[in-house]
Amino acid sequence: MRVAIIGGTGVYDPGLLEGREETTVTTPYGEARVSLGRFRGIEVGFLTRHGPHHSLPPHRVNYRANIRALRDLGFERVLATAAVGSLNPEMKPGEFVLVDQFVDFTRCRESTFFEGGEAGVVHVDFTEPYCPELRASLARAARELEIAAHEGGVYVCTEGPRFETPAEIRAFRILGGDLVGMTNVPEVVLAREANLCYALVAAVTNFAAGISPTPLTHEEVLQVMAANTARLRALLERAVEMVPPVRHCRCGRAAGPAVEG
Ligand code: HPA
């Protein structure tokens, strides 16, 4: 069994890997660097979303290369992390949310593998955007480790890289959002198009603009992430062990035949 981890802001260290080696995968969309190793006998891959030294802002991340690389390396499961702001008073800084829906407000990203041509015109069902089986593994791991993790939450994805206005945050709340971030779309979309199981642990680093009493800064996000990285890593490690060896979900058939090109 193989599980890949995509580390978001503040999660750069594939420390859990034994026998770690770096590989660069060339895809039709560009290159992606992945660390490969083992954790308690399970083959684990680790990819930092924002590249080495957090050099890529959310709208410049090569999401297609990242997901295609993981698929080409044979991974079927992806556990991802992301720092988020919260719109929901119940979801507080320092807490984790196992996201189950998203609302997409991105504008200028390469958001699909299906560009017509030989692959044809493909419309993938997104009734269940995140893998329920992976989310259940994360929820069980959180319960066992007594780590507070909300089971379900709506992630609103903005284009960034700026933070939101208070008026946008009020609008997102009316639309049913709980969390706001800049990276989960198109990552979750591409994972599903590639027939991968994908789950997101969102780490709340701040209340969103207009709810927070102070202006938002990236430093604040990094500080709160740093304070929570140890718990997040423990959660991921236990969840990796709890992922069932064989998939029982529908993710493997989400987009029909495998993506090529
Ligand atoms: N908005 C968007 N992205 C974020 C935030 C936020 O408040 N916090 C962490 N990532």
Question: Would you mind describing this structure in some detail?
Answer:
By secondary structure, the chain is of the alpha/beta class. It has helices at residues 63-72, 132-145, 166-174, 184-193, 218-242; strands at residues 2-7, 18-27, 30-39, 42-48, 77-86, 96-98, 101-105, 149-151, 154-158, 179-181, 197-207. Strands 1, 2, 3, 4, 5, 6, 7, 8, 9, 10 and 11 form an 11-stranded mixed sheet that branches. Helix 1 packs parallel to helix 4 and helix 2 packs across helix 5. The protein is globular and about 45 Å long. Hypoxanthine (HPA) is lined by residues 83-85, 163-164, 180-182, 205-206, 208, 216, 221.
Biggest beta sheet summary: 11 strands, mixed
Q: With helices defined by DSSP (H or I, 4 residues minimum), what is the helix count?
A: 5
Computed Rg: 17 Å
What is the end-to-end distance? 26 Å
